[in-house]
Amino acid sequence: MWVHVMAWLTPDEAALSLFDEYADKIYEFAKYSLGNQSDAEDLVQEVFLRVYRTWSKRPADNPSAWVWTIARNCVRDVYRRRARHKEQPTDDLETWTHCARGPDTLVEVEDLFRALTQSERQVVYLRLIDDQSTEAAAEILNWSSAKVRVTLHRAVKKLRVMLSGDTAGAVSQSKERRSSR
């Protein structure tokens, strides 16, 4: 029914409706992916600006996947910009971890997420925090379901190693995997 209702909306109404439904989730996704509150806020703005501008070209069958695809592409754009300008992400994880976990675990959470790759952070967010299905996460990331499962497995394994106290081993595993690519 949602799809049929969306077909009748103007770009203004559609962008506002989709913003109401997805803005908070996309913000959290961007925060986990980018590790920066300011970039996450900018990304949400950019996502819904693109929704507004491209409303007439949208796929009619799945507005949710379309919005998430725009968000994923915006995250990629930020990483490309950072690579071109050699920007280092601002470590603004304290803001959200303070609210979510309490001040006694801030350093631990920051270290955990720094050790994960961009792909691992995105999968952990979508599957474990936003509680998306494997298929939905695969569609959002434009991956196969198998890749989502494998990436999540590796991320969880890395997090378990780090939580058990062997953070050096987990970080070195991550660096080894990156250098072998």
From TrEMBL:
Positions of the RNA polymerase sigma factor 70 region 4 type domain: 107-159
Keyword set, alphabetical order: DNA-binding, Sigma factor, Transcription, Transcription regulation
SUPFAM superfamilies membership: Sigma2 domain of RNA polymerase sigma factors (SSF88946), Sigma3 and sigma4 domains of RNA polymerase sigma factors (SSF88659)
Start and end residues of each RNA polymerase sigma-70 region domain: 18-84
InterPro entries reported for this sequence: RNA_pol_sigma-70-like, RNA_pol_sigma-70_dom, RNA_pol_sigma70_r2, RNA_pol_sigma70_r4_t2, RNA_pol_sigma_r2, RNA_pol_sigma_r3/r4-like, WH-like_DNA-bd_sf
Listed Pfam families: Sigma70_r2 (PF04542), Sigma70_r4_2 (PF08281)
Coiled coil regions in record: none
Domain of life according to the entry: Bacteria
Keyword Transport found: no
Family of the protein in this entry: Belongs to the sigma-70 factor family. ECF subfamily.
Protein name as annotated: Sigma-70 family RNA polymerase sigma factor
Organism: Alicyclobacillus fastidiosus
